[in-house]
Amino acid sequence: MYQPPPTTRSTTTRKPTTTRTTTTIKPSPLNHFASKNPKTYKNPFERSVEMSDFCTTNFPTGNVEQKRLCQEILANIPDRIIHLEGQLRSTIDMVNRVKTEQDETSFEIINELGAVDMDSKRLEEKTEEQEKKLNRVTRTLENLKPRIGEIDNMYEKYAYMVDVMEKKKQVLEEMMDGVNTIHSTMKAMIVNEMAGSKKQAQPSSYRWNYQPVPMSSSSDNAMPKQYERELYEIAKAKPATIGKKTDAKDCSEFDGPNSLDGKYEMNGIRDVRGKSLTVRCEFTKGKGWIIIQRRVDGKTNFTRGWNDYKSGFGTLSGGELWLGLEAIYRLTMKTPMLLEIIMQDTDGRTYTALYKK
């Protein structure tokens, strides 16, 4: 084991066996430590020379091997120090780069935070603006609630008035139909009277088919009683069946300048009970047509079973009707017929189709 020499040094000096080099290097980053104590700081080469003297001083001449090992170790110290200095410089550069990147990142984050803050402020402003608009709309709706109630009341009154007007219109239309029927009947009576046909004027040949229409209110029922009685007396002359012929098989046999729309007996055609077939004839442009179906106002239910469609239903006096499959078969079984279909839409446009076969 190595024993350190005594603290008292000999005054005799010896030159070191190692040769001092005069190589110079650039100042190391470690030199900044010298500013703290410049009197005691020494560069690595100066310290290596002193340590070389240390090997010569502390190892006698007889201990050559230990001295050689000491000198080899001391010779590698400058390279080791230079290597460590390079690593230190690299570390310092890396630290500086990291610090620069951190500064740049911090600057970007600060900018982004500023932008986010501005966006947040704009969003808050827009939110406040939308809340103000919503409050205005709410106040407007609150103010309109009484008006909505008034509008509802006006709508109910209007609907009631429309309903009343529709009823009045229906009553007037029925009255007009009655007046037209009375007019046609009176015309027929005048023609028959002029022709000297007293038979058609006998009361037994006619039946009463007039029914006064009830009005919707007392104010609407303003028809004078005298006028109503006159209509009653005139309507008594309306025949139940307008025309009869012995061998008639279709309405064209009743064509004439004074032909009237109504019920006609076809004595040339018998129904299943052996009676004369009664149909409704209408005369258009001098031609007599048999009405097999009429649908106008929806008052008659057409959703029926087979028996009703076989025998027929409705009224022949001008309302809705279906003549019946049995009657249609007996009318067309021996005589070729033309089929005309007339349809009218809600706008008053009329469409017609004519079938010859």
Explain what you see.
It is found in: Secreted. One of its GO terms (cellular component) is extracellular region. Residues 1-41 are annotated as: Disordered. This protein is an alpha+beta fold. It has a domain at 241-357: Gamma Fibrinogen, chain A, domain 1 (Gamma Fibrinogen, Chain A, domain 1), CATH 3.90.215. Helix content is 48%, strand content 12%. It contains 5 helices and 9 strands; from the N terminus they run αααβββββαββαββ. The chain has helices spanning 44-58, 64-195, 225-235, 306-311, 325-332; strands at residues 243-245, 262-270, 276-284, 287-290, 293-294, 313-314, 321-322, 339-344, 350-355. The strands form 3 sheets. The protein has a 4-stranded mixed β-sheet with strand order 1-2-3-4. Strands 5-7-6 form a 3-stranded antiparallel β-sheet. β6 and β7 (321-322) form a beta hairpin. The protein is rod-shaped, with a radius of gyration of 65 Å. It starts with 43 loop residues before the first helix and ends with a strand. Residues 1-39, 196-228 and 230-240 have low confidence and may be disordered.
Question: Quick summary of this structure?
Answer:
With 357 residues, the chain is α+β, with helices and mostly antiparallel strands.
Query: Shape from CA axes?
Result: rod-shaped
Give the tally of β-strands: 9
- Poorly predicted regions are 1-39, 196-228, 230-240
Number of helices: 5
Main beta sheet: strand number and arrangement? Answer: 4 strands, mixed
CATH fold group of the domain at 241-357: Gamma Fibrinogen, Chain A, domain 1
| Distance between the amino and carboxyl termini | 143 Å
Beta-strand content estimate: 5-15%
Give the proportion of residues in helices. 40-55%
CATH class descriptor name of the domain at 241-357: Alpha Beta
**CATH architectural type of the domain at 241-357:** Alpha-Beta Complex
